[in-house]
Amino acid sequence: MTALDSRIAPTAAPHAVHPDQLSLDVVVTRGGLVESRHRVHAAVVRHDGARLASARDGDLVTWWRSCAKPFQVMPMLLDGTFDRLGWGDEELALACASHGSEPEHVAVAARMLASVGLAEDDLACGPHDPLSERGAALLRDAGAAPGRLHSNCSGKHAAMLARARAHDWATTGYEQASHPVQEAAWRTVADWSGVPASDIPRGTDGCGVTVFALPLHHMALAYARLAEAARHNDAVPARIVRAMTGNPHLVGGTGRFDTLLMAAGAGRIFAKVGAEGVHTVGLVDRGIGLAIKVEDGSARAQYPAVLACLQALGALPPRLPASLTAVAHHTITNTLGDAVGAVFVPGHELVLEG
After folding, report:
1. Cβ atoms within 10 A of the Cβ of 169, count?
2. Given 87, 165, 283, 349, which is the most exposed site by the fewest CB atoms within 10 A?
3. CA dihedral sign of residues 25, 26, 31, 32
4. Do residues 228 and 47 make contact, with C-beta atoms less than 8 angstroms apart?
5. Is 185 in contact with 71 (CB distance < 8 Å)?
6. Which candidate, 205, 204, 207, 206, places its Cα nearest to that of 155?
7. Which helix (H) or strand (E) holds 68?
8. Which segments of the chain does DSSP mark as H helices, in order?
């Protein structure tokens, strides 16, 4: 890839270009000089497995983190548990969410638990501060401390607990790799990613649930297949994508990237953030998936890289909506509020395959 000049002036958001002219590496400038650089790896894959493009190492193996949530809830839909509980799109969106701990999120998670006679203490995830500014402010104004329902993964955990209860499996230890709930999620990830389960390493996610490691190519392939299946109205995939795109606030929250992106995509784009700079996106109308990994795990580089890739693919226009422009080209301010630098994607290369 072409080395970036050490002196790059902040410019507008990346223009729409042909994919072979884009690099997803992100720079951080101050006073017109590059102060920091974030290396970004990516794979863009069609539903039939064809690699359309890549940045750096499209086969990089890394942890999928929360991007796997749509596939972790899938067994619950396939076995009919979801419908027997009378759950709808709100519960499904929250099961796929990395939410901002706002009242709407907490209420749906609590409702999910109550429907199967369980409570907050049954969740294996620990509490943490809200990921959205609104969620943090409301909790602070109430003088309350976050509980387990405020975990950004409480919807996923509530769904897993409900499936365990419905099948009369132990609810204690539902998050462990040996539990039937986690075994089913592992097999589902294998089916959709095209990687044999025996070749998928498992670890422990930040919320305590089993997490999977995959090459970026196969993360993108899973989302491409999900997008294509939803496009053809296959029942379960279509429900998942509809729930996510129809309830973007529940998937993320006020000001959260996935919410802003899916709102701008108007049903054509579904996206899931993962910790440590991993992100997966599906393009419903084209049966394409993309997966990125910021090598150093930085979230400040993650979102500009996703937007630059989507613009290069023509999935977003050259002129982004205001809600996304500030993400694509983020201004750095000092403690006085003065603009002193920026975070953005300046490059031009995305390596086309074949």
Report:
1. 14
2. 349
3. positive
4. yes
5. yes
6. 207
7. none
8. 69-72, 74-78, 81-84, 89-95, 103-114, 133-141, 154-166, 180-193, 216-231, 235-246, 248-251, 257-265, 299-312, 322-328
What is the Cα–Cα distance from 14 to 318, expressed in whole angstroms?
Answer: 7
Token match 């994508």: residue?
A: 241
Tokens found for residue 100 = 């901002």
* CA 93/CA 13 separation, integer angstroms: 30
């899938």: which residue's tokens?
74
Residue identified by tokens 């017109």 is 32
**How many C-beta atoms lie closer than 10 Å to residue 326's C-beta?**
12
Side chain identity, residue 1: M
Give the Cβ contact number of residue 282 at 10 Å.
33
Each residue's pLDDT tens digit, 198-209: 999 999 999 999
What pTM, to 2 d.p., does this model score? 0.91
For residue 226, give both structure tokens: 């999900």
- Is residue 250 within 8 A of residue 185, CB to CB? The reply is no
Q: How far is CA 111 from CA 72, 79, 106, 174, in A?
A: 20, 21, 9, 19
Q: How confident is the model at residue 167 (pLDDT cuts 50, 70, 90)?
A: very high
Number of H helices, E strands in the chain: 14, 13
List the beta bridge partners of residue 342.
29, 331
pLDDT the model gives residue 153: 98
> Could you count the other beta carbons within 10 Å of the beta carbon of residue 32?
11
> Which pair of structure tokens corresponds to residue 24?
């997803």
Residues in the chain, how many? Answer: 354
CA distance 301 to 294: 7
